[in-house]
Every structure is written in structure tokens, then in C-alpha cells.
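During the second year of the project, the team shifted from modelling isolated chains to modelling whole assemblies. The rationale, set out in the original proposal, was that interfaces cannot be judged from single-chain predictions alone. As a representative example for this report, we include one of the complexes processed in the last quarter. Its constituent sequences, exactly as entered into the pipeline, are reproduced here:
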Amino acid sequence: MEVLHLAFYIGLITFITLVIYKGIKIASSPVHLRWELYPVAHEKGKARYGGSYLEEFEWWTKPLKKDLFGELWTMSQEIILLKGVWEHNRSLWFGSAPFHYALYLYILFTMLTIIGLIFGYNPFDSKIESNYFTSLLNIILWVASILGIIGSIILLVKRIFDVNLRLYSNPSHYFNIIIIGALYATSFIWLLGSNNAISEISGFYNGVFTFSTIPNLPICGYIHFYLLSFFMFYLPFTHMTHFFMKYFTYHKVRWDDEPNFPDSKIRKKLMEQLNFPVRWSAPHIGADGRKTWLVIATSPLPTKENKNG
Amino acid sequence: MAEKRKVRITDISNPNIYPLAEVKPTDVIELPPPYDKLENLPGFKKLSEQTRQAVDDSLDGVVAVGVPKPKTPEEEKELVEKFISGLIKLFSKENNWTFLQPLVLTMEHCAKCQTCAEQCPIFEASGYEEIYRPTYRAEILRRLYFKYVKPGSTFLKKFQVGDIELNWTLISRLVELSYRCTICRRCAQSCPIGIDNGLITHELRKLFSQELGIAAKEIHEKGTVQQLLVGSSTGMTPEVVRDNVSFIDEDLSERLGIKVETKWDVAGADYLLIHNAGEFLSWPENPAAFTILLDAAGIKWTLSSDLVGYDGVNYGVWYDDFQFSRIAQKHFEIAKKLGVKAIIMGECGHESKSMGIIAERIFGNEIKTINAMTLIEQIVFSGKIKFDPERNYFPVTLHDPCNIVRLMGIVEPQRRVLRYLAPKFREMEPHGVENYCCGGGSGFAVMSPYNFLDWRVQISGRKKFKQILDAFKDEPPGPEVPKYVCAPCSNCKGQIRDILDYFGAKDKSGIYYGGLVELVVNAMADLKEPFIDFSMM
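Output from the structure prediction step:
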């Protein structure tokens, strides 16, 4: 096993493990109180203007209809078009869009490469450089690399020269852009310098996923995969996990409008949470570390605060 | 974006920078004539030397809370230790399950793209003063969270989010800074990732109240504490409120020539109506209009004279989960005792959000709630009452209370009513869920300590005032044509009243304000006298 094999496995395993761990951790957070924000995308017939089922007189007597297509449509626009940034921060969109599109294309390229291997794509076949699948992969990687470089440069320049971004940027922000930009730059150089880049990349994935030797790569190829390995290892420790945490910020907070009906799952979880012991110290809370949340929240004010009490 | 001196995040800990920021009259956004003159920009009242010696005004020269200055280094140290203890509790599931998930999501995933910044009416109206940027206070809490709560290598944490020095100066300024945001959550609405900087304000206020016992006097001591002890944040006891309402009924009966009689404690009524008790004192025509409308529609309703039951106010929603729950629990308990099928929440935004959304998840499984907007729409289009829209033939615009619209999704009912009953209705821009806060949200409307009134009228309410003026720009600019701002929320009305008074907009432009139900009753064809009398407003 080569060092690159090991680096890649460590990166991939860390990525998968930590993403799953973080996802489970946030998903198993206590049920929070409602804090939705309109428009809520699944409000059937009302989402377009931001309305809710609460507009209906005696809403609980009517069926609550959820428009799951509405959610899907809104999320698609957000993910594919970066609609929020387009509407509220247009100048950033011109950097953010190529940056994100490049990521999507890079992921697509990697997945297609792996799928190709599963279905018999042979990286060691001397004729593969001329087949359609290779051409498709080639185009995707070229576009991804160029968009990625453009996006990274724009975002980096904006972070450095726009004082509104610079004041809130930490070393990690510059580092993240540089690392991702370097990924694209190395793939770009690789494509530029080698006629066999796609078969070399496929050969690499064939090697790591079949635990076999990887073909000789050009220097930029080695750098590219070491960078990729590091990036996979590093990403779960950063705010960039927003790529999947966005599910929770939207579906579990912003769009969480589930009403409180007896016997609902939420109600059951909530009843458990009401029994949590509370330790806040301000006198008006009256907590002692033993009294539960519900006891405190339904008790009169403690005597010190309650001058009549 | 206009360039200003940029305050850095770490500056908040530096006691040598005094004040940390300052908004000059020339910095703020311009208003249309006749409010564009420099005499309309008097700046903020200077605090007396005595006040400045007693409380900290080093954030921006404005004081909303007034953290007392420490007398000894030990006092400083104690505050810092308590703050750290509160910070840890804020991120523990036992102490803060109520908002832990959204809080952690916001702390850990902000990309710092500043997409939210332009959406904040306070940041914009102030001329983009850095400390009012939605991410400024969030970034301070984020750094403190990484430093004192989140496990991991110190080096990596500094690399990821930067460092900050925690001292008395930071805490005191952060207390004030948590009262420079109305929690309108317009910033959160624009965030592509779903980060909620409005929530940060909410959580900071909770930390200060629940651990350090620090909160704005008007919303804690005179607010929730008074409400729980006396019955209402207005200070009205059950006896006083019944007396006041009886007087309002008599007065209206005499003026309108019809019987106006409020119902109290009717067991078995269909609905318990809970007003913001501020209405009884400041806008008695609002509860009176409800009485007339509900009776005319043949609805079985009642008010409650139980302690807390006649005041839908719940200031806890802005700063303290426990005060919030104590009040909310009373509301639901009283409704249950009366045996009603639902609570009707009067024209009050935060009451509606508190009861109808937030407390609903804890106490609302048996008793449900209805916002007044939907009830009014139901009555207006029920065919039970005859209306003459021509009685409302004056320019009307609608203010969208954030709590009812952006945070509850009740957008159209009030519009359908206005389109029918107010022939000269026009929208503000932007409106609906993209509205601007009145500037009095999160308790500001009832807070006027020290020089805070100057700030909330000139800065946090500025964008709304501009919207109001723009909505009526096609009308004669003077007072000859009365113009009505329909603000179906008590707190918004309070803030709009203060803005209009401050700028003299009634005399200069003929701008008046009121609720929705008053317009509806004014259009009732069977009433001999108009309900709305501009000469008395």
C-alpha cells in the first residue's frame, strides 16, 4: 500500500464517519420550540406569498396539507441556482456560483468515474481515451476545473479586498478557498499536461477501491489526490458542513411548523424534555439543579422576586 | 454601501475605545421632505454626567438596559465568571433544550458571506454602523462559544473563528448590543444557509436574564414580573381593568348610540378573547371595536378577569424562557378553566407568536389559538354584517407586524379585508413577509429609558417611517387629507405613535394610525356615527 492509498483512506473514512456522526448528533438534538420563518415551502397554495395554515379560521378543524414538491422545488432552486445569494448578494453570486457549480461537477465527475469502473470501464485499456464516456468525463472535469479556478479567485479577491468580508474572515476562510482552488488548479494542470488524465484518474480510483496498485501519476496528479485526501479529512471540522446541515436549518427549523397534537412524536419527546433539571442561577428562575424545567416554568415567581409572596 | 469607520470584532473588549461606535445625524438614511432637514435629525440626547458615572454607555452613547458600572475588580471578575457559567448552560440540552438545535446550527455553519447584512433595517438606517450589522453580535458569541464551550484544540479554534478577550467591557457592551436588534429576523430570511442572527439576540438576552439577572427593566421588572404579580404589565389589576373597560363601554355606547357591553368570565363561551392590555389604556377604541364586531356577528365570546388572563402580553418571548412559560401557561390554563374551544389573540403580534406558535408546542395540545386577522376576515365575509366601504374613503396603508406575518405566515386575511373595506388601500414596499419591522419589536416599543427613545425613533424606526411616507406619496402631502396607517399590533402601534409624534407627522402630513378592527367597524353600515373620528386621534 502506498502512502497516497493510506492518505486517501484516512480522508475518506474521516469524512464519512464525521459527517454521519455530526448528522446523527444534530438530528438527535432535543425538540426545540417552534421558530419557523415564512415563506414555508410546504404550505400548499400559500408558499408563494408566505402564507400558512394559520390563516385558516379554526385551522385545526381542517386537514393540514403539506406540499412536498414545494419543498423540493425551493431546495432545488437554492442548491442549483443559489437563489438566496442571487437575490440578496448579487456581487458575491458571481464568485459563489462558479465555485459551487465546480464542486457539483467535480462530485459528478468522481461519481461517474466510479460508476464507470463498476460497470466495466477499464482505465488500462489503451483505447478508452477515444470513447464517448471518456470524452464526457473529460468535458466535465475541464468545466469543473475552469469554473473552480474562476470562482476561487473571485471569492479570494472579494475576501481580501471587500472590507465587509475581510473584517469577518479568519485564516480558515482564506485557507479553505485556497485549498479548494488548488484542487481545481491541479486538475486543470493535469488535464493540460496529460492526454491520459482521465484514465490516470480512473486508474487511481480503481487502485484505491480494489486495494491494488495505482498507476504512475504525474506530479500534479499526486498533489491533486493528496489535496483531495486532506480536504476530505478537514471538511467535517469546518463550517463547510453546511452542505448537509442546510437540511436541518431549513427542514427542522425554518420550515418546522408542526402543530402540537396529542400523541404526536414531538409531544412525546417534549414531555421528556420538560423533566430536565435546570441550573440557571438568576434569582427569579428559582432553579436548584433538581427542580425540573416544567416545575419551574409553571411555578409562581420565587419569593425574593415576588414581594407579595 | 457607504464607507464608515469600521469597528473590529475584537474592539468590543477594548475599554479604551469610547464609545465603541457613534451614529451621527448625518450618517443616517434620508427621509423624504419635509423630514429631510437637519433640524429633523437632532441626534441622541446627551446623558447626564451622573448617569454616565452610574451606568455603562460605552457601546454607542445610548442606554437601553444600563449595566451598573462595577465598583471593584472583584465585581468585574464575578460578572465574567457568571457569564462563562451562563454561556455553558446556554449550550446544554438540560438548560436550553428550547432553542439548542437552531442555536448550534447558527453557531457552527455561518459562512460569513454578509448576505444578511443589507436586509437589516437598523444597520441600513444607521448608515451601516458596523456594530449594528447582524453578524457583529453573532460573531462575538461565536468566538466565545468556540473559546469556552466547544471542545477542541485552541490553535484550531483560533484558526477557524478567531479569538476574543472576555472582560467586563465586552459583557456590558454585549448586554446593550442585544438590545439594538428587534429580532425581526429579516436577516435570517435572506440567509442561503439558514443561519439565524435574530436568534442570537434572543439567546444572548436569555443568557443575561436567566444567569446574570440582567434585562431591560421595562420588559422584566415592569413587564413579566409585574404581569405575574399584579395581572398585567400595564399595572392594571383585575378590578381596575374591569372598571376601565366598563368606562370604555359606556363612553362608546353614548357616542355611537348602540349598546356596547364587554363580556367577562362567561363559562362555556366559544372563544376567550385576550387583548394586549395596553389597548385598554392607550387605544380603548380597539377592544371596543372588537366588542361591537363580535356581538354583531353573533359570536359567543368572553374576556377573562383572572390574573394575567386579561393581558395577552408576554414579554418573556424576547428575553427569558421561564418568564415566558409562566405567563403562557396562565393563558392556556384560564382558557381551559372557562371551557372555551379556542383563544382569540387580539391585535398584538408578539402575543400571537408567543401563544400561537412558541408556547403552542408546550401548552397548546388541548386549547388552540386563532389570530384576530383570521377571525376578522371570517366575520367580514360571513355575510352577517352589512358594510359600506365608502365610509373608509381615505388613504390607508398596512403595516405588517413581523410576528404575525414573517413569523406566523398570516399574510392575506388582513389584506382581503382591506381590499374590500378600504377603497384607497395601498401597500408599502416591500410588504408581506418581506416587510420592515416598525422598529419597536422585541420590546423596544415599551422601552424609553435614558436616551433610548431617541435611538429607536431615529434609527430602528427610520426605515418604517420612510416606508409610510412613501406609501402616501401620491396623496396631498399636507394634513388636509387624513392618512391611516393600519397597524394590527399593539407594540407596532406604540412604536408608530412615537415615530409620528417625534417627527410631528400628524400635523405636517396628516398621518394617523390604528388597528384593523377599527376600520372594519367604521365600515359597518348600521352604525349611525362613524367609528373613526380623526379629530379625536
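Residues 41 and 75 of chain A are 9 Å apart (CA to CA). The mean pLDDT of chain A is 94.
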